[in-house]
């Protein structure tokens, strides 16, 4: 009898909770790979900003798998959420699923994903500008001559653009030679991939390179540790990268780290901007054009080196 | 009663979860969502069906997910390169089937334990996907006829569901109604006795592993058509889920024995859970936790009822 009463109370409590929460704006968030710090930073920022507004939020992780990502989007459509934010998605691969979102009348905002006709807009930094900032910083530190190693990542549109811009910069400054390059292929075991690939490159080119360009900070951390294991000290080699974040800033400031600079992408601000835009468009009924006229909402990325890193550590 | 619980306990637990979601998960009961769940089950069910064939002959296939990824990039790469999609599909199926055949040859001909042999081919297949793609996905404008393989409908039913039904029913028919199925089962249950009874046990193992590869090829083609892209490790996540589906399947209908009906229901339970948790608004990490819990719980319960050691796979 007691058990039945408890069960009944549980069911009622659940139903009441659902009914109350059903009144709040429901936001679905899908991060492509939560094990990647940048993806998690965006998703967590979206979640925090949305909860601050009193919204219900469901955050999903695609584990870096395309099919899982497509299923998460489809499931959110079926659940009837009021809005969807995708972090580091791939509009070309998920064209059909994004079309489903649009057909269901659910506003969709993507972050660092690329433009899609089925999304309101993509919140981005200008990767071409980001790529030129890091490439020119590296070459400037080398005095526009010397040899560099690179660690690339072609599967992500942002890191791929950064690599292409580096190639353009190198083509105009031929006194700097790329003597070795590793291209990260595995997304799930990328740390091991970077460690093995760059360790081999560093060994092969020991003593004959002056700088290293990494396509994102996660790669740079591993390279930094490898260089330290070789007994190198700050300034022996110029290591530059892109993304930003507390660990990056700590390393830039640290006298033990090879990491000299990064281009800090405001992932948290992007997540907050996605929620603000969703509020204006989906809740207040504003036109998308009042936020941005094009397929992108660009945000500013700052070059961070030892001269200004303290400003970012304080934040 | 014990026998009933052993046979149907997992399925009943799955049914209870289903009923719970029908009541509490908003939109779960809608026909669109139920078809959505069936569509999402199709890839897993097809892959797990193939794995069941291998396991029926008492051999493991840990390469099916990697073979599927390889077949996917072969299919996608050929289409992106301008090959007629029909030929690309045949090539994808052939590559995965060949992978299964190689597994079978290694196990039956070279006498490499299937655990080691299929781990090896999984690694080779993984390397080949990166060799073909360079880590970059094949994308582009795909022939609508090809895309219809995964996105089309027949009398309102998604083609994916129709293909899944065809694969599962064919597999069920082969295992339950044909001599081949009986011989495969005999090989898996008592290899020595089966061999003495005149059953070509090595051939049965070869067929089981080859069918596992073939099923991986079918799932790969459907994955490519569904996502209109092909990337390395495309099917990587299906290894654990596939094994989980088969293990769940072994706890029902014919407890302790791999069986197609059980595998299908196992795959369905995993998909229903994944869908239902999203509809309930559960956080993402709960999906992995729930999957782990349900596998451990169902296998433990059935194993304790049966006191069989068949779950040590």
Can you offer a commentary on this structure?
The complex is a heterodimer of chains A (315) and B (313). Chain A is of the alpha/beta class and 315 residues long. Chain A has helices at 2-22, 37-52, 66-79, 95-103, 127-142, 157-172, 190-204, 217-229, 246-253, 267-283, 309-314, and strands spanning 26-31, 56-61, 83-87, 108-111, 121-125, 146-153, 176-184, 211-214, 238-243, 259-264, 296-299, 302-304. Chain A has eleven helices and twelve strands. The model of chain A has no long low-confidence stretch (mean pLDDT 90). Helix content of chain B is 76%, strand content 3%. Chain B is built from 13 helices and four strands. In chain B, strand 2 (153-154) and strand 3 (157-158) form a beta hairpin. In chain B, helix 1 packs antiparallel against helix 13 (284-306) and helix 2 (31-56) runs antiparallel to helix 12. The A-B interface holds A 14-15, 18, 21-22, 26, 34, 56, 58-61, 63, 65-68, 70-72, 74-76, 78-80, 90, 92-96, 153-155, 183-188 and B 24-28, 30, 32-33, 36, 39-40, 43, 130, 134-137, 139, 147, 151, 223, 226-229, 231-237, 274-275, 278-279, 281-285.
| Tally of DSSP helical segments of chain A | 11
Estimated share of beta-strand residues of chain B: under 5%
- Number of H- or I-type helical stretches of chain B: 13
The pLDDT mean of chain B sits at 90
Tell me the span between the first and last alpha carbons of chain B. 27 Å
- What is the topology, as strand order, of the major beta sheet of chain B? 1-4
Greatest interface (CB-CB under 8 A), with counts per chain: A-B, 41 and 41 residues
User: Would you identify the regions of chain A where 5 or more consecutive residues have pLDDT less than 50?
Assistant: none
